[in-house]
Amino acid sequence: MIGCFVTGTDTGVGKTLASCALLHALAKHHPRVVGMKAVAAGAEPDGQGGWANEDTLALRAASTLAVPAALDNPVLLPDPVSPHIAARRAGVQVTLPPILDAYRQLAAQADAVVVEGAGGWRVPLSETLGIADLAMALQLPVVLVVGLKLGCLNHALLTAEAIRASGLPLAGWMASRVDPQMLVPEENMDWLRRQMDAWGAPLLADIPWQATPDPHSVAVTLPRGWQ
Ligand SMILES: Nc1ncnc2c1ncn2[C@@H]1O[C@H](COP(=O)(O)OP(=O)(O)OP(=O)(O)O)[C@@H](O)[C@H]1O
Ligand SMILES: C[C@H](N)[C@H](N)CCCCCC(=O)O
Ligand SMILES: [Mg+2]
Fold first, then answer.
1. What residues does 124 pair with on adjacent strands?
2. Which end of the chain has less Cβ packing within 10 Å, N or C?
3. Mind telling me which PANTHER family this protein's record contains (predicted)?
4. Domain ranges (residues) in the chain
């Protein structure tokens, strides 16, 4: 069973796009791939009389294994805010055991599981629990998505350092060119690439700015081993 945990330098940097691309790529050689949005903050009508999170729906569309919502999105919080606040507002205490149980059930059925975090590495899930704790409990290699924009160099290095401190392997990183107006993007990429190389983290994808995000077009660019 292949698994990874996708984190980012921030919220809104392209983790969902990157996770869907990983699923499409892995599906080329692994018949049963599934995405997991362990903790989702924000829900929309699902068109079937219920509620669903848009990241969960995107991951589901990129998965080849259909599973109950309790497995691919064990925690769904209505408000699109930090999960610890969304949970408090919903009267929910986010704890690890139900999430780990859902992950184990997915891992038992799938050849590959891609778990998308929420926001960045240190986002709180409760007063005592955070995204990093979840990644450590899952014991998965981490893929870091860097939203390429002014400020991302600092965020990328801080996040890489924190992942290293957690003891989890940093399997690689992806750049997502979220700001088409960014000045000197290649110079930023060059510095990031050298820093991440020094961390032993290869660049897995350089995702161009896409007016309509297309995970299939990213999947075909991933290195061997991921597809
Ligand atoms: N390379 C890109 N080009 C253009 N738009 C992008 C790119 N990457 C991400 N986006 C857009 O930026 C927005 C945020 O991306 P996305 O939802 O993947 O972020 P995220 O990191 O998954 O955030 P969250 O913490 O909410 O899960 C989306 O509208 C997405 O389509
Ligand atoms: C609601 C949003 N789309 C994400 N799922 C959650 C982002 C939490 C960010 C918290 C923070 O770092 O300030
Ligand atoms: Mg997302």
1. 130
2. N
3. DETHIOBIOTIN SYNTHETASE (PTHR43210:SF5)
4. 2-217
